[in-house]
Amino acid sequence: ETGVTQTPRHLVMGMTNKKSLKCEQHLGHNAMYWYKQSAKKPLELMFVYNFKEQTENNSVPSRFSPECPNSSHLFLHLHTLQPEDSALYLCASSQDPLAGANYGYTFGSGTRLTVV
Amino acid sequence: GQQLNQSPQSMFIQEGEDVSMNCTSSSIFNTWLWYKQDPGEGPVLLIALYKAGELTSNGRLTAQFGITRKDSFLNISASIPSDVGIYFCAGPLTGGFKTIFGAGTRLFVKA
Fold it and tell me: Would an 8 Å CB–CB cutoff place A109 in contact with chain B?
């Protein structure tokens, strides 16, 4: 039990599909993050939300659309993706961004996305 | 920009062997974090280091904060099959609110 739950674990979607990834945490954390993990590359930060407000968009293409309705839930809406978007998408949380960077994040198990 | 270089990229070892890996940067860090990612899971924090020269252990794992503050080391003693995974170093970027990760060291342990 990691404390951060991601669904689905695996997703295969066509380039014209629309799908959503879901992340949920009940750790009482105020900051939530989306990371992209591609093979043999460092984790890439995509978005940061702190107290439901987006504080970071790391030049992510608009085909990725995040949503944070409250501090416990985070979504990543996907549409018209490309095959190169296939990767493991990780959600993480921390008490706040400063705590996360200095004391560590709690990560979910990730969603393995394949775009065909 | 700031970058973390991890070596080796991969290690293939026999069960019972000791393991050493490192993480280097051209920039100074005030915090070093080491995470492990099991196959099919997200990274989990193993050890955090906050002071140059600091040596911290977590079971069979020992990590060190380099004296120059530009490197950190992780050692695993008497490896076991469940040590298999990817080990990431990480540290806060200038400003302290965001994290940079290394590309990871992939450890394979043969029973």
Answer: yes
Q: Which residues contact B50 (CB under 8 A, 6 or more apart)?
A: B30, B31, B65
Choose the closest CB to B103 out of A42, A98, A101: A42
- The per-residue pLDDT for A2 is 54
- pLDDT at site B2: 78
How far from chain centre, in Å, is Cα A5? Answer: 11
At residue B24, the 3 state secondary structure works out as strand
Helix residue ranges, H only, A1-116: 97-103
The set of residues, in sequence order, having a beta carbon less than 8 Å from that of A1 and lying 6+ positions away, is: none
Q: Choose among B4, B42, B96: nearest Cβ to A98.
A: B96
**What is the Cα–Cα distance from A7 to A71, expressed in whole angstroms?**
17
**Residue B33: per-residue pLDDT:** 98
Average pLDDT for B14-24: 98
Question: pLDDT tens-digit profile of B34-64?
Answer: 999 999 999 999 999 999 999 999 999 999 9
Low-confidence ranges of chain A (pLDDT < 70): 1-2
What CA–CA distances, in Å, run from A49 to A3, A29, A30, A46, B111?
18, 11, 8, 10, 43
* CA A60/CA A52 separation, integer angstroms: 18
- Indicate the pairing of strand A10-13 with strand A111-115: parallel
Residue A93, CB-side half-sphere exposure with 13 Å CA sphere: 25
